[in-house]
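User: Hi! Is it possible to get a structure for several chains at once, not just one? Here's what I have:
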Amino acid sequence: MSEPSGSVTAGMSPTLQQADKPNRPDWLPMALVIGLTVVAIVIAVAVTPKFLTVDNIRAILRNAAIVGIVAVSMTPITLSGNFVSLGISQSAMAAMVSFVALVGTGMPQVFAIVLVIAGLVAVGVLQGAVVAAGLNPVITTLAAGAIIFGVVSEVSGGGIVRAGDAPLSWGGSTVAGIPIEVLVFLIVTIAVTLLMSRTVTGRETTLVGANRPTAEVSGISFTRVTIVAFAIFSVGLAIAGILNGAAFGQATAKSFPDLTIDSIAALLVGGTAIAGGQGSPLRSAGGAILIAVISNMMVLNDFSTGGRLAVQGGVVVIVVVVLDLMRRGAFRR
Amino acid sequence: MKPGILTTLRPYFLPALVLAVTWLVIASITPTFRGAASIFSVLEGFSLVGLVALGLAATIIAGEFDLSVGSMAAVAAVIAVLCEGAGLVGAVLIATLAGAALGAIQGTLIGRLGINSLVFTIGTLIFLRGITYILSDSAPIMIDAYEITDPLLERYGIFSLSSLTALVMFAIVGLFLTYTRWGREIFAIGGARNEAIAAGVPVVRPMAIAFALSAGCASLAGALAAMRGGSAAPQNYEDLLLSGAAAALLGGISLYGGRGTVFNVALGVAVLSVVGAGLAARGSTASLVQLVTGVLLLTVITIEFLAGRLRLEDTVFAGLTGRRARGSAGAGS
Amino acid sequence: MTSMTRMAAVLCATALSLGTVLGGVQAQEGTGSVMGEGKELVMFTITASNVYGANQIKGATAEAEKLGYKLTVFQNNFSQPEQDQQVQQYIASGAKPAAVIFWPWVADAAINDVRLLSRLAPVIQLTQEPNEKSWPFVQAYSGANQILIGKTVGEMLIQARDAAKAAGMEFKSPEGNLLIFQHPEGEKTGTERYKGMIEATKDAPFNEIHLEYGANSPESGYEIGSQVVPKYKGEFDFLWVSNQQAANGVIRALKENGITPGKDVYIVSGDCSGSLEAVKNGETFGTGIQPAAVEGALAVRTAAKFVANGGIEGDVIQMEVEAEAPEIDPGPPAKFNFMPHAPAIGADGVANTKIWGYNADEICAS
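Assistant: Yes, the chains can be modeled jointly so their relative placement is included. Here is the combined structure:
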C-alpha cells in the first residue's frame, strides 16, 4: 500500500530524512542546547545585575517547571512519530478543574489526586487508541481539546471552580527550600528519561518513531507504544494540573491558556525531532529551562511583552531550523 | 474522459449532508435562526473563519499545515488599524499584501530548507504574535476616523461587503487552484511529492504560493474584522486555528494532501457558521460552539478514515472519501 | 477610482448618520411600567470565569427575573473582536430587544458596536463610561463610579500610611514608595481610578516607583507579581493592586520573595472581587466593596426605567450604600447612574459590610 509521500501530517511513512542514519553523533543537538544555555547564562549575568541571585534562579526554575513537566511527558509521543498534541492546555485545565472541584467536595486529597490521574489517563488512552488506529494525531488532539474545553465549560457553567473551605495552597510550598513544582519537575524528568532509555517499551518507542515499518516487522506493536506514550503524557498533564490547582486553590475553564504553545516550543528547542525517532525527555527539560532563562533575562531587562514573544518565536524558529539541518548532515564537511 | 455530473458532485455528499442536518437541527431549536436572517448570519461567517479556512486549505492541499494563521490575522488587524489613513480599502489592501508577503517568505523557507511546516509555523506563530504586540504597543488600538468603516456596517440583503469580499476571494482562489499551472503544482506537491519532484515539478514555488495564500487570506480576514469592529488588539484570534482547520477538514479537504476544492472549504465554513451563528443567537457561550466544533471534526475525520479503511473507494460511497477508486485514471494520485 | 470610493464612503456615512439619528436616538414613548412582561433584554459583558463577571451576570439575571424581563447574556473572554462578533451576530439574527446593556471591553474601541446596537434599541452602558465619541449613541451609563473608587483607594492608602507609621515602619521615601499593579492596558477602569487616587492623595502624594499593567485575576496577578516583585524588592512600602483576586496572586509572589504582606508592605486593592481571606487576616490592608451583583441589577433597573419612561432626566443618580435593596424607583434614569461603593478595612470592615442584602463574601468572592 503506497502512502502519499512528503505530506507533513499524513501517514507515518518514513521521510527521506529518516531513511538516512544521522551523520552527526547523537549527542550533538544536546550539546547545542547546553551550549546555548551556557552562552545565554553568561550573557545574562554580564548584562543583568539581578540575574544570579537565589531568588531569581528559583523564579526561573519555577517558570520552567510546569511547562517542563508537560514537555517531558509529551516527549514519548513525539519520539514514537505521533508528532505533538494540540490539546495540551485543555487537558491540563481539566485536571486542574476536576482536582479543585473534588477537593472542594471534601474528598481527601490523596483520593482526588488518584482520581484525576486515572481520569486523565483514560481520556488520553482513548485519544491514543484512536491515533493508533490511524487517525491523524494533530487533528485528533486538536478536536479532543475543543471537546474537553466545551465539556468542562458547560459543566462548570463557565465560572470559577473553588476548593470550597478546604485551604488549598500546598502547591506553592517548598521542600527544603526547593519549590515543590521544581522538585516534581526533577522527578518526572528522571522518571520519564529512565522509562525511555532503560525499558523495553521505551526503546521500542524510539524505534517505532525512527522507522515504523521495520519496527513493526520486528514485532513491535505501534498500537501499544502509542497508547503507552499517551498514558505517560496524561500522567504528566494531570500532575501539572494538580500542582497548579493546589497552588491557586481555584481553577476555571480558561486556565493554562499558553501551555500548548509553550510546551511544544520547549520540546522542539530541546532538540527532539518532530518526525520521531530522535530525542529524549531530558532534552525537553533542557528546552524548557532554556526558554525560561531567555524569558527571564528579557523580563529583567525590561523587554516588552511583544519583544519577549518575538524573541521566543525567533529562537524556536532558528533552533529548529539549525537542528533540522544538522540532522540531515547539512553541516557535514 | 469528462466525468459525469454525479461523479463531480460525489466529494461533496458528506459535507453537504452534514450541512443540511446541522442547519435543520439548529433552526429547529433556535426560532430566530430561520429564513433570510439565518442565511445572512451564515454568510457573515465567511469573512472571518471562511477566509482563514480557504488559505489554510491551500497549505493542506500542498501537504503542509500553517499553524500561524491566527497570529497572522492578528498582525494584519493591527496593521490595518495603523494604516487607517489610507482609507478603508487602502488599509485592508496594505495589511493583506503585507501578510501575503510574509507568507511567501515562510513558504519559500519551508520549501528551500525542506523543513516540516508544523515545526516551522509553531515558531512563526509565536514570533508573529510578538510582532503584533510590538506594533500595537501591547495595548488595543482603535480607529480614529471611524466613519471610514461605515461601508462595512451596511447590509445588502443577505450580504455585506465583508461576506461579498470573502466570496470573491473564494472564487479567485478556486479558479487559480484549478485552472492555472501554478495552482495545479500545489496539488502535485501535496498528493505525491516525491513523484512530483521526480516528474520535474518545482517545490519552492508552489510552497511559497500556498503559504502566501494562507497568510494573505488570514490577513484579509483580520483586516476586515478590525475595520468593521473599529479596533485591533494584540492577543486576539487565537481560536482561529481550530475554526479554520475544522472548517477545511469538515468540508472534505483531505489531510493526505493533493485534493479538495474551494467548494469543500465553503461547505465546511457553512457548517461551522451555522453552528456558531445558530448557537450564538441563543446566547450560548463560545465554549459550547467549540464543543460542537470538536465533535463534528472528530466525526468527519473518523468517517473519512473508516471509509478509506473499508475500501469504499471502489463502491458508490466513493464520494464519502473524496478519493478516487484505485486503478482509475486519476491524475496526481 | 479612489474618489468614487471616497464618495461612496461619504454617502454611506451620511446615510448612516441620518439613519442613526432617526433610528437610534429618537424620542421614544415610554411603556409606563418598569415591569417587562416578557420583553427581551440583551447584555454584553465579560466572562463568568472571572469573579466580577460572574457576580455581575448573577445580579442582572436575578433582577431581570424579578422585573419580568427575558435576559440574554453574551460573555466575551476579554476580547474586543469576540464582542464585536457577538454584537454583529446578534444583530444579524433579527432579535428585537427592548434595550441593550453593554459593557464594552475596550471602551474606546467598541464605537462601531455601540453605533450598530443603538440602531436596534436604546443602549445602557455599564462599568466603563462612554467617551465623547460614543455618547451620541448611548442613552445612559449605569455602574461603578470609577473616580469614586479611585478616591476611596487613595483614602485607604492614606490610612494605611498612618497605620504603618504607627507600627514603626520606616518608609523608603518621605511619603512612602508606591508600586501599582493595574488592570490591563487600555482599560478605562484603571485610568479613571488612577485619576481618583491622585486626586485623593494630592495633599501628601505617594512616590510612585512603578506601574505595571495586566493584573486582573489570580493567575495574572501571580505571573506579573513574580516577575516584577523581585525587581523592586526592598524598594516599595505600599502596593495598590487592581482588585483582590489579583492581589491574592500578588501576595503569593510576595511571600515567595520573602516579603510579608501586612508587615513589610501594605496592600490596598481597588475592588474586592476575589477571595477575602487576605483582607480578613490582615495581609491586605483594605479593599473597595464594589458589588458587581448590584451593578448588574442596577443596569437592568436602569434599562427598565428607560423603557418605562422613554428618556432620561437629570445628570447623576448616586445610589447610597444600603443594607437592603431599595424598591425600584419608577422615575426616569439619569445620565449617570452610579452604584454604591464603600471601603472595607481589615476583618472588621469585612464583617460589617452589607449592601443590598449581600454581605462581603457574597459580593466579592462567590
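Strands of chain A lie at 161-162, 174-175, 178-179, 250-251. Residues 24-40+52-327 of chain A form a domain with the ABC transporter involved in vitamin B12 uptake, BtuC fold (CATH 1.10.3470).

User: Great, thank you!
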